Amino acid sequence: MSATIIIMTLVLLLTLCAPFGVKYAVHLARIKDYPHHRKAQNIIFVVCILGVLLLEGLIQSSGGSGSLASQSKYYQTAFFKVTLISHIFVAVISYILWTLLIVISNVKFRKTLPGKFSALHKKMGYMIFGGLIYTAITALMVYIMSLNLI
After folding, report:
1. 3-class secondary-structure state, position 115
2. 113: which strand partners?
3. Is the peptide bond between 35 and the residue preceding it cis, with omega within 30 degrees of 0?
4. Helix 118-146 and helix 78-108: axis angle, to 10°?
5. Between helices 78-108 and 34-61, what is the axis angle to 10°?
6. For residue range 80-111, what is the model confidence (pLDDT) as tens digits?
7. What percentage of the chain reaches a pLDDT higher than 90?
C-alpha cells in the first residue's frame, strides 16, 4: 500500500470519526461539564485541522487538486464532480465556522459562556455538526470513487 493511500485512509478515518467525537463533546455540554466539553472540542478541532493540512500537503505534493482522483473511472462523471465540489464547499464553510466558534468560545469561556453567547454558540455548533456529517459522508464517497472501490 502506498504512502498516498495510507494518508488518504487515515484522514478519511479521522473525518468519519469527527462527528462522533463532536457528538460526545455536545453530550458533555448537555450535562453541564463545560470544562471537558471545551477540552474535547479543542482536541477534536486541532486533530481535524492537522488532518486537513496533511491531506492538503499530500494533494499539493501530488500535483494539485484532482491529482489523487485523476485515475478514477469516475473522475470525468458529473456525479463525481458535484460530490467533490460540494464536499470541498461544505468542508471549507464548516471549518471556517468551526474556527470562529472555537476562537470566540475560548475567549468567552468562563467570562460569558455559558451566558448570552450560548444561544448562538449552540446554533453554530449544530450547523458545524451537520457540516461535519455531510463532509464525512461525501469524503467516503470521494474516497471510494477515487480508488475505484465500487
Report:
1. coil
2. 109
3. no
4. 150
5. 140
6. 999 999 999 999 999 999 999 999 999 887 77
7. 79
